[in-house]
Amino acid sequence: EAGASVLLLRACLALLASPIYLLSFLGMWEPFCRKVFFPFILDKISVVHDKKSKKHKQELFRNLPDFRGPSGELKLLEIGTGSGSNFQFYPPACKVTCTDINPNFQQSLSRNMKKNQHLHYERFLVAAGEDLRQVPSGSVDAVVCTLVLCSVHSVSSTLREVLRVLRPGGAFYFLEHVAAEHSSWKYFWQQVCYPTWKLVFAGCCLTRELWKNLEEAKFSELKIQHISVALPWMPIEPHIVGYGVK
After folding, report:
1. Residue 151: Cβ-neighbour burial (10 angstroms; 0-12, 13-18, 19+)
2. Would 92 be classed as within a structural domain?
3. Phi, psi at 78, each rounded to 5°
4. Which of 59, 69, 85, 98 could potentially form a cystine with 81 if both were Cys, beta carbons 3.0 to 4.6 Å apart?
5. Which ranges in the chain belong to alpha helices (H)?
6. Spatial separation of the C-alpha atoms in residues 110 and 84, rounded to whole Å
7. Overall pTM > 0.70
8. Is 162 a domain residue?
9. Residues 175-215: pLDDT tens digits?
10. Residue 51 is part of a domain; what is its CATH number?
11. Given phi > 0 = left and psi -120 to 50 = alpha, else beta, which region is 78?
12. Rounded Cα–Cα distance for residues 215 and 64 (Å)
């Protein structure tokens, strides 16, 4: 019953988005999405998301200074920096290395860097979460990743890289949207939107149960909280937030 309704509604949604499917078939959507559409739309969505998640982020990043290295410095690596909406939450004099697979956020990124001059920006690397080979093993005190694990190709390889670049005793901070409870309407709509959403939003997967990946990764200590961040008309309300220690 539910399966048939999901397929029918998926087809309706695909029909509505047929110009995008056509562009994708012709190989024109992906480059346009990466350069123009995704940076633009993400900028708009993150304004709303930042407002809704601000107190969760303040709470999450409050203990960042506890993970300073032996030298007293805090070296932080952010995976999928995007436009840099997390900078405001990092402690003063924190040394930040930004990475993103998509280098097309420069405008909003430099705007956020100017706004947050309490940080030292070390470098910007164009890199996927699964491949941080430009970052030496055990070289950072903290890794941050928000709304990124939904669209990496492999969550487990990304978490392996996180653990590799962290020094022992370092921490991985996350805030991610996840699959809803399977028996809920929210999950039904996530399934309906899944294929079209993934195409439109640069590979973003709606139904990942990321808490399972985090529990399987080799963290010595893991704090996960399930929260809800309500965004109007968007199937991404259920979130997890927390941190893991190497």
Report:
1. middle
2. yes
3. -110, 125
4. 98
5. 2-16, 18-25, 29-32, 38-61, 106-115, 155-165, 185-200, 210-216
6. 8
7. yes
8. yes
9. 999 999 999 999 999 999 999 999 999 999 999 999 999 99
10. 3.40.50.150
11. beta
12. 21
